[in-house]
Amino acid sequence: MFYVATAATAWGTGGAVAAVLYDMGGIGPGAVSFWRFLGGLGLLLMLRALWRQRRSAPGGSLARSFRRNKGRVVATGFGLAVYQTAYFAAVQQAGLTVATMVTLGSGPVLVTVGSRLLLDERVGRAGALAVVSGVLGLGLLVGGTDQSTGPNPLLGLGYAVLSAVGYAGVTVLGRASGRRQEGSAFDAMVLGFAIGTACLFPLALAEGWLPSTEHLFWTVASIGYLGLIPTALAYTLFFAALSVVKATTASVIALVEPLTAAVIGVVLLGDRLNPVVVTGMTLLMCAVLCLSGAESQRKPTDPGGATEGLERTKPDEPRALREPQAVDAATSRRD
């Protein structure tokens, strides 16, 4: 749960950095997403190479991992590209308020339904209460801010729903893969970002993918930050957590993201808090704390729980953060 909260906090900083790229780099949401994915992919590949060198990992290539998990990798990459880019498009067309409320508000609901139908994960009273509290808190948090709608709210609403569907799909798929231990989770994530980068390139190319050189230092620094913190670090932690935390729990705890964005607005951008926003922030924190307490009390043998079907692992060594090719090596021995 700490990994999910950390990932969501990192995601919450991404919007402010993306705004800097819009202004100083002169590029649009498609290009920002492309550079973010490309930077994150490069860092993940470097991390993978360092792990393999440090642990003298045998064989096992990304190509072989792709052949073994084609469907999972393609779906993850496409889902990542869709929900990131559709959210930015929703902000442009409907404004930040509508985009944030619809995307992040409907995400936990869609994840709850998907995990119940596809993974047979029961929510329970604490989970249901946390989902309601989180969505209500998000509505108050966003509705209490002074934001205007965009030029085409209806189109923006469609983009926001598409983004929420993509997010829910990636979350449920990551949870399902973590429970079934389908190959190397780290390699699958790297390949997913490769697919996502390829999907985003045509959009970035049509939009104008090269940033302006007028503020070159800040542009490069912003791209580097987006690739490192909200992408490489955040998604590594998020997918690692999905192997031991239920999908609904992860989606609600991820509501820390708009909470982080609100704090950044107050501290760095001079936004003012009002009672509605404070109430929304309080409800969001209650939802996160409620699920955190319920998750910590759940027994590992709980059917439909997050540890169902998993081997016992050391608490300081999450599956997605281990040596990337351990599972591939084991599979090769069986073959």
Automatic annotation (TrEMBL):
Primary localization: membrane
Keywords associated with the record: Membrane, Transmembrane, Transmembrane helix
Compositional bias ranges of the Basic and acidic residues kind: 309-322
Pfam families: EamA
Region (Disordered): 295-335
Record localization: Membrane
Record membrane topology: Multi-pass membrane protein
UniProt domain EamA: residue ranges: 2-142, 155-292
Membership in a protein family: Belongs to the EamA transporter family.
Name of the protein this chain belongs to: Membrane protein
